[in-house]
Amino acid sequence: MSGDDVDSSILFGNLMGPNQTGHFGKGLTVCSKTLLQMRVGQTLGLSILMLTLATPICGDQPVVRREKMTEAIIRALPHLEERGQWWIDKKGCMSCHRVSFMAWSHVEAKSAGIAVDTNKLNRWIDWCHDDLFQPIAKENQKHPGEKKINRNLSGGAQMLAALARWEASPLQKEKIPLILAALREGQQNSGQWNPAGQLPSQKRSLVETTHVITLWNSLAIQTLVKFGSVERNTVEPMLESAAKFLREYEGGESSEWMALKALFLKRSGNQKGFLKMIAQLSAEQNEDGGFGWISGAESDVLATSQIVFLMQEIGSAEFEKLVTQAVDFLLKSQQPDGSWKVQGTKKKAKERHTETASYWGSAWAVISLSRALRE
To answer: Assuming Cys at both sites, which of 7, 83, 125, 370 could form a disulfide with 108, CB separation 3.0 to 4.6 Å?
Structure first.
């Protein structure tokens, strides 16, 4: 396959399914772990000890780092629940992707062997689905029958990513084709999904944000295929159209785009482009191990967490040091209340830490640490 050819069947292919093994990093084996159910109220130290003893150590990953990762996740979950439930109670909507990230982060934590309240988690997932498919008031509809999901496709894609690793109820499974239908309807003729809500006001070009959203939506869809939730032929046209759109753009400045683009290039068989993009991304790693959200910026928890997550998907021995240093940055950056502080991603936020961005970053930290702990 030439560097310019895009095979949508491997757009984001080779994602590890449940109970499969593979390799990430020299001597670092992706293990199938025994899920350990820990009672809420057990001491943190005992929980960490039990998880460590019950879980095979993956390759040469130090036990102490696994303990710290486990501790960080356990400390973060109550904060994510408290602020996520606050959003449900006070805001009553899924905007800003707060509740979808609460659900997704808890799903990832559970899949890494951390005990979560599955009854609560099911309620959050059902709440997200109910909100997504609420009709918009008729006087505000852009077209007849418009629903909230039509203006929040990214939230729908986040729910697909969560459901891929979740033992979904029959009602939850019924929502998967409905979310896919909304994504199909919302995809533009040129293959992209356009950013909505506050995403267009982020501190990068609208073109770059559009590519980032299209990359994430494609990855969510492909993850469903890999875990057997949908048949590939039902989503192939969407992935093919997205691949054609994504092929040409080279002007991104955010580390999020660089990592997503690297994954895209690798899955597309463009090894030369992949190595070039990885070199560009690696040069962005700061001395403290973290990555800035925009090229040249100080280390940022949101960006660093996304890179840890995406590097697990890329999976190569060459990047073990990069990931280890990034994980160490996340562990050192956690606040006493279990959260992580993050600067706002919108232009008007300047360099201020914002509550919403900090919630995103905290949820992404749990997602990425859970993925690294599991694999």
So the answer is: 370
Residues, the chain? 375
Assigned token pair, 352: 């201020």
Say if residue 146 is exposed, middle or buried (CB neighbours under 10 Å; 0-12, 13-18, 19+): middle
pTM: 0.83
Q: What is the pLDDT of residues 80-119, one digit of tens each?
A: 999 999 999 999 888 778 999 999 999 999 999 999 999 9
pLDDT band, very low/low/confident/very high, at 4 (cuts 50, 70, 90): very low
Report DSSP state, residue 39. Answer: -
Token pair 């993956």 in the structure block, residue:
58
**Helix or strand run (H / E) with residue 68:** helix 63-90
Contacts of residue 293, defined as CB under 8 A and 6 or more positions apart, other chains included, come to: 203, 254, 255, 256, 300, 302, 303, 343, 345
Query: Helix 98-111 to helix 63-90 angle, to the nearest 10 degrees?
Result: 150
Nearest-angstrom CA–CA distance, 38 and 125: 22
* Domains, the chain, with CATH or none: 8-374 (1.50.10.20)
Q: CA 128, CA 50: separation in Å to the nearest integer?
A: 33
Q: Give the phi and the psi of residue 221 in degrees, each rounded to 5.
A: -65, -45
Comparing CA positions, the residue from 108, 134, 143, 170 lying closest to residue 309 is: 108
CA distance 338 to 74: 8
For residues 291 and 242, the answer to whether their CB atoms sit within 8 Å is no
**For residues 159 and 132, is the Cβ–Cβ distance under 8 A?**
yes
CA nearest to 12, candidates 259, 205, 192, 201: 259
Report the C-alpha gap between 330 and 108 in whole angstroms. 17
